[in-house]
Design a protein that fits this description.
Blueprint lengths: L5 H20 L4 E4 L2 H8 L4 E7 L5 E6 L1 H7 L3 E4 L6 H8 L15 E4 L6 H10 L4 E4 L1 H9 L3 H24 L6 H14 L18 E5 H4 L33 E9 L2 E10 L5 H20 L6 H14 L16 E5 L6 E6 L11 E4 L2 E4 L3 E4 L2 E6 L2 E4 L8 E2 L1
Helix pairs in contact: 7-8, 10-11
Length: about 400
């Protein structure tokens, strides 16, 4: 999208208003943002620079590159960044209260920044530019504001779900014994790319990356890896130790199709399990349990439900089924969550995990993924993405459910 349309401009103004209200409530004088996704979320442009949002007054987007494009796209006033050495002085000219000399820390203007994604070197530069500021961690502010999706954002995720459903059916129509995992995911990527997938799936977590999908079969899908998920996949090389490998897909083994799509920056995340032939009895039981867990969680998926309680419920169900050792990974590689927020990034808030006491609210979008890992044999499970509504939920994932037998 070149230029900010009326709908998007209204959307961005609402986001900035919510941010300023939160800054005021938290006793902060302003917030400085530098991360691409946050810049896009609040300005409508992903050009390189600094977005400064005061608790009251007009924000400014100081852009290094490309200023011309930022002026076309941004709903926020754009200025050239110029020399970083004089940036602090320019900020103080625009916001005189930033330049006021304060003795005690309590008297200095409190400025938030995204400490979760801000490199230490960059933070130190900002501190040198504005030495009079009291720098605070504003990560939770941004992430909590972005938890609640607008109708515009939900529309983008629905479109991504529609495209990924078509891609899944196309892949299933081509799937046959002997096809490699790489051939299968390449077909999915080709299909979604031609229909608007931007080609990447963004993650906020440090050193975390995700490809368009985690497609894996049999032992390769169950290979442990660094990726913070219940199934990472063998990958092509230790330089990219996740998702598809060159291993041929065989009969009577589980094929995990964890695929996504990103439209206008917004992500859908879903998983289906297929088999060419028949699953072994224990893996069939585990797959059936994954569907039983997701159905049970759906019964509680409404405003007011507490994230960690939903996770704990799923743990009890897996344990009662005698499958606790295989739930969400295996042994030391088990992950400690059931679901995660999605939106502009794969790993948004809220998280269905211990220690996350957020009550669900309308507008939250969550991918819920009960899965079971069998070392050396494969992974089975299901994943749907849901939007929390005023009286329950909307299932955004539209792909057919059930074990897909080919």
């Amino acid at each position: 999208m070149t230029g900010t349309g009326k709908l998007m401009r209204s959307e961005l103004e609402t986001r900035l208003d919510r941010l300023q209200r939160r800054l005021q409530a938290d006793g902060l004088a302003g917030m400085m943002m530098t991360q691409n996704v946050d810049l896009y979320y609040f300005t409508g442009s992903m050009q390189t620079g600094f977005l400064f949002v005061p608790a009251s007054g007009e924000p400014r987007f100081y852009v290094r590159r490309s200023v011309a494009r930022a002026r076309e796209e941004s709903a926020v006033q754009v200025e050239e960044l110029g020399s970083p050495r004089t940036f602090g002085e320019r900020l103080a000219q625009a916001y005189p209260w930033l330049g006021a000399e304060g003795g005690e820390k309590a008297d200095r203007p409190a400025i938030a920044a995204e400490f979760d994604v801000l490199p230490v070197q960059q933070l130190q530069r900002l501190q040198r530019m504005l030495p009079q500021a009291d720098w605070r961690d504003g990560s939770a502010i941004v992430r909590e504001l972005r938890m609640i999706k607008s109708p515009y954002e939900l529309g983008r995720i629905r479109e991504a779900a529609r495209i990924v459903d078509e891609a899944l059916e196309d892949a299933l129509g081509r799937l046959k014994p002997g096809m490699t995992e790489l051939e299968l995911i390449a077909g999915v990527e080709h299909y979604v790319r031609l229909r608007g997938h931007i080609g990447i799936m963004r993650m906020r977590g440090y050193n975390q990356e995700v490809i368009t999908g985690m497609v894996g079969a049999g032992a390769a899908a169950a290979a442990p890896t660094y990726f913070d998920g219940p199934a990472g996949g063998l990958g092509l090389t230790p330089a990219s130790p996740q998702s598809a490998s060159r291993r041929p897909i065989q009969r009577d083994e589980p094929i995990l199709l964890d695929i996504g799509c990103c439209i206008d920056g917004y992500i859908i995340d879903q998983t289906r399990t297929a088999v060419i032939g028949t699953l072994p009895d224990d893996m069939q039981q585990a797959y059936d349990e994954s569907e039983r867990i997701i159905r049970s969680i759906e019964e509680d998926l409404r405003p007011g439900a507490v994230c960690e309680q939903l996770y704990q419920k799923s743990l009890r169900m897996a344990d009662e089924a005698g499958l606790a050792a295989h739930y969400m990974g295996y042994a030391d590689d088990q992950v400690k969550f059931l679901g995660h927020g999605i939106g502009l990034e794969v790993d948004e808030l809220p998280v269905l995990a211990k220690g996350f006491a957020y009550p669900l609210e309308p507008g939250m979008v969550i991918a819920i993924e009960p899965k079971f890992t069998f070392p050396g044999r494969g992974v089975v499970g299901i994943e749907n993405s849901y939007a929390v509504t005023d009286d329950g939920f909307e299932k955004l994932t539209i792909s057919r459910e059930g074990l897909i037998r080919l």
